[in-house]
Amino acid sequence: MKKLLFILVALLGLQGCIATSTSYYILSLAPQPTSTYATKSRIIGVEKVTIPAYLNKKEIAVAKTSSQITLLSNAVWGEELDIGLTQRLISFLQKKFDQPNVYAYPWGVDRQPTVRVKVDITRFIAQGDKVYLNASWELKSGVTQKRKASLFHTTVPNGSDAESIVFAMDKAFSQLEEAVAKGVRGY
Predict the structure, then answer these.
(1) In sequence order, what are the residues at sequence separation of 6 or more whose Cβ sits closer than 8 angstroms to the Cβ of residue 176?
(2) Is residue 45 within 8 Å of residue 113, measured between CB atoms?
(3) What average pLDDT does the segment 105-128 reach?
(4) CA pseudo-torsion sign 29, 49, 47, 149
(5) How far apart are CA 99 and CA 10, in angstroms?
(6) For the domain that residue 116 is a member of, what is the CATH number?
(7) Mean pLDDT of 32-43
(8) Arithmetic mean of pLDDT, 168-186
(9) What are the strands, taking DSSP E only, across 13-111?
(10) Are 113 and 144 spatial neighbours (Cβ–Cβ below 8 Å)?
(11) Which has the minimum average pLDDT: 16-20, 42-46, 94-98?
């Protein structure tokens, strides 16, 4: 009985040594824009970016088919994606417009935005050799309440490993950021 217990404890100890390490990934670092826009006197408010429920999981989701996903067990998000993507969009807009007046919702009474940005991501996942990003975004005037809505879709090629998937997701979100910034500029 002692021998069996010793073997069991030894096997459990070895399991910890054999287990593969987990890699953590983030998407919250905003890239430096290649160009900036001339600053207008405005305050930009950004609502929380909404994401599909499968992105609320810690593990990175990959689509096997259009209706089935699998979770990568050794590749996890190091942040809550909705919060990270919201902060990233704010940081990118600050850099793109070369101004600090970009705030997250809820904004205070003293910082009412002249333009509100709302982004709703409906698909953001790797399937096969591509990452797909589908979203809608809306601009709303804080003064006139006028709205402008747009659809966004992009695919970015990727490899099959977690690092290349996250890299492709980063590139796809960069394209969305540029589209939103262009919309804000012309609004």
Answers:
(1) 119, 133, 135, 137, 152, 154
(2) yes
(3) 90
(4) positive
(5) 59
(6) 3.40.50.10610
(7) 85
(8) 96
(9) 23-25, 44-46, 59-65, 68-77, 102-104
(10) no
(11) 16-20
Q: In 3D, which of 50, 53, 45 has the Cα closest to residue 139?
A: 45
Contacts of 121 (CB under 8 A, 6+ apart): 49, 50, 51, 52, 55, 85, 133, 134, 135
In a domain, 13, yes or no: no
Cβ proximity of 183 and 154 under 8 Å: no
Q: Is residue 162 part of a domain?
A: yes
Residue 2 in any domain: the answer is no
Report angle CA 31, 34, 156 to the nearest 5 degrees. 60
Domain that holds residue 45: 40-185
* Structural domain contains residue 126: yes
> What total of structural domains would you count in the chain?
1
pTM above 0.85, yes or no: yes
Residue pLDDT, tens place only, 47-93 = 999 999 999 999 999 999 989 999 998 999 999 999 999 999 999 99
CA distance 27 to 77: 9
Question: Residues of the chain with pLDDT > 90: what percent?
Answer: 71
Under DSSP, the state recorded for 66 is T
